[in-house]
Structures are given as structure tokens and as C-alpha cells.
């Protein structure tokens, strides 16, 4: 296949992967969340580092299971492909909703995901995700555990 | 044409269609809104079901005509193409603005559009749109009629 | 190269350019901001007109240097390519953060960018950007100088 076409397809698949990660979180579809990552992924966030898919799923469940809803809106994705590996950056704005939380129902966390990805026989997978925060707004008690 | 290229083009056209739907709403361009749909579209939303393009335009006008502005920001679009039909899911975050509304000027409605689309001689068109809500925030009186 | 493929690539490059403009602002990377524009760009905004890249960078620094953070989230990009020129429209939702600002820490400005672009030996560049506002929310003092 034409190299330029193959690169465009890879970029499309990686954008889809990032979108599917967001859908998995917001649908609390933990099986789908596992499908977004390699076998031994690393997840770095402002509070620390998680190694392995079980830890990543546990952290997501801890953050989201008690909520009524969440929405991880994505934008600004830029992907660089290098053969069977890739890097990408995108912005997220994640709304968290819990009715009846003391002080308000909503809490937004916004920032960026900076990913390393690898092409596997099952498609592109995230091997490393770095989550950075740019701003937060609303009632932090919504996401308190 | 190469099948993989044709699929990428279809995905691009459908993403453009979803964006143009949003622009039509926010510009109150009801002629452009009609161009987004097939001749006999269905629109399903949390409050019910609308059959036909006249009903869809009437509902949009009812929601938006009285506002000073709106912005339907889209993200996370994933499209699956199957020949001359397609399915897509995207997120929206729709801000509604009406200055002087009692209790505040803004009201956000956020959720997802799940579409069925068909390729027509005039390009891709939405035959069915399912609008789901994930969260709402602000002053509901902004959109009250 | 296939014409349809070349057009898709141009659309991808222009979407990347718009994303990189946003990253440049939010990282306060003024050298990267310069790379987004032609040698003699025009920037039109609701308050006036800026001619030339020095003026564009000065305006961005004036708006952002004093902030703790910003996030220019983009969506809904539609690009039309015509040979070595192009036009695009996208939505932005820009959060501005300054801790300790009297009346609240955040101020959102949201609207659209309507661009004219040209293909140069260094890639696509913005020759004219028109910034329109759709809504604003939060504490305007965050961005007051």
C-alpha cells in the first residue's frame, strides 16, 4: 500500500483508539478499556504511576464506579507515526457527575494525554499514557472516595 | 479507487457532515440543517421521537430561535463504514446562551449522537440520529420556552 | 500521488496545524506560534485587527503570559482545499486559569476560527485567521491586564 495512505490510516486508527478509551470509561466498560492497552502498559498521572492493565482498570473503576455519569470529551489530537510505533498528544475535558454531592453535582478535570503506541496483530494499542492536568473546576467532592 | 482510501474519505465526509450539522444549528441556518438528513430521517432524543425533516427543523428552531447564541462543540467521533451505509458515534457539548435569563445566562447540554448514515448522490446523509444526554449544567431557564 | 489522497493529507496537516497553534498558546511556546503563520499574516478578532507575526505573538503573550494555565480545546474542524490554498473553520473553547483572581479562578472564551491557509515549502501556514466569539463564562478578571 502507498506509504502516505498507510500513515493516514494509522492516524485514523489511533484517533479511534483514543475515542474508544473515552467511551470505555464513560460506559464503565472495563473489558473495552483493557483492549486499549498493550499487555504491560504504563500509566503516569500527576499523583503517581500505575504499571499493568489491572492497575489501570482498578484506578479507572475507583474514579468512576461511584459516579452517575462522566464524559471524556477529546480534541486537538496530533499523531506521529514511525513504522509500528507512534506518539500522540490530545486534549481531554472530563466532566464527572454525581447527583447529591455536597457542594454541587459536577467536577471537570481537563488536560492532555501524551501516548506511546505500538501496532499489534490486534491493532494499535497504548503502551504508555501520560495524563497531565491543565485545569479543574466545580466540586471536587464529586470524585472524592 | 483503493478501498482503504475510499473508506478514509467516507470517514472524513461523515465527520464534516457532523460538523456541518453543528454549524447549521449555531448559525440558525435551517436550509443547511435540512441538507444533513435523508428525505425521511428519524431523530430520537430522551424526550421522544421525531419523524421527518420538517419535524427535526421545527424542534431545532423551537430550541434555538430564542437564544442569543449556541455552540455545539463536537469531539471523539468514530465512524464505521459498510459500503453505502455507515454508523457513527460522537460526543457533543452544547452551550446555550440567553442574556438576561432569570438565574444565569448559560446552559450546557452534553451527550452523544449515535447516527445511521447513507451515501446518496448528494453525499452522506443522516437517516437516524439518536441523541443521548450525559450531563447538563447551568440555568435550565435559558432553554425554557 | 492520487488527488483524493493528496487532499486528505492536506486536511490532516491543516488539522494538525490548528492543534499545534493551540498547543503553542497553552505551552507559551512563542517560537512554535510563529511557525503556524505565513510571513505576513493577518489576525482579525472582535476587538480589531493585527497585521504581522510580531503583533500576533505580542497579543497572545499579553493575553496569556500572566496566566497559570490555559487550554484551547478544538473541535468541529472542516477544511476545504483548493490546490495550494485552503480555507478552514473550527470551534474553540478556551479556558483561562489564574489562581487568586478576585471573583474566581477561571474564564472561558469560546467561538470559532475561520482561516485562510497557504501551502509553503515548510508546510501549511495560516495567512489569515478570523476569531469570532460565541460565548464567554466565568470571571473576566482572570484575563484582565
Highlighted features:
alpha+beta, 145 residues, 6-stranded mixed β-sheet, homotrimer, Nuclear Transport Factor 2, Chain: A
Strand pairing plus helix content of chain A: what structural class?
Answer: alpha+beta
**Share of helix of chain A, binned:** 25-40%
Low-confidence stretches of chain A: none
Return the CATH architecture of chain A.
Answer: Roll
Shape of chain A: elongated
Summarize the helix and strand pattern of chain A as letters.
HHEEHEEEE
Any idea how many domains of chain A? 1
Radius of gyration of chain A: 16 Å
The most extensive contact between chains is: A-B, 25 and 18 residues
The separation of the N and C termini of chain A measures 50 Å
What does this structure look like?
The structure is a homotrimer of 145-residue chains. With 145 residues, chain A is of the alpha+beta class. Chain A has a single domain, classed as Nuclear Transport Factor 2, Chain: A, CATH 3.10.450.50. Helix content of chain A is 28%, strand content 49%. Chain A contains three helices and six strands, in the order ααββαββββ. In chain A, strands 2-1-6-5-4-3 form a six-stranded mixed β-sheet. In chain A, a hairpin with a 2-residue loop joins strand 3 (69-82) and strand 4 (85-97). The radius of gyration of chain A is 16 Å and the shape is elongated. The model of chain A has no long low-confidence stretch (mean pLDDT 96). Chains A and B meet through helix 1, strand 3 and strand 4 of A and helix 1, strand 3, strand 4 and strand 6 of B.
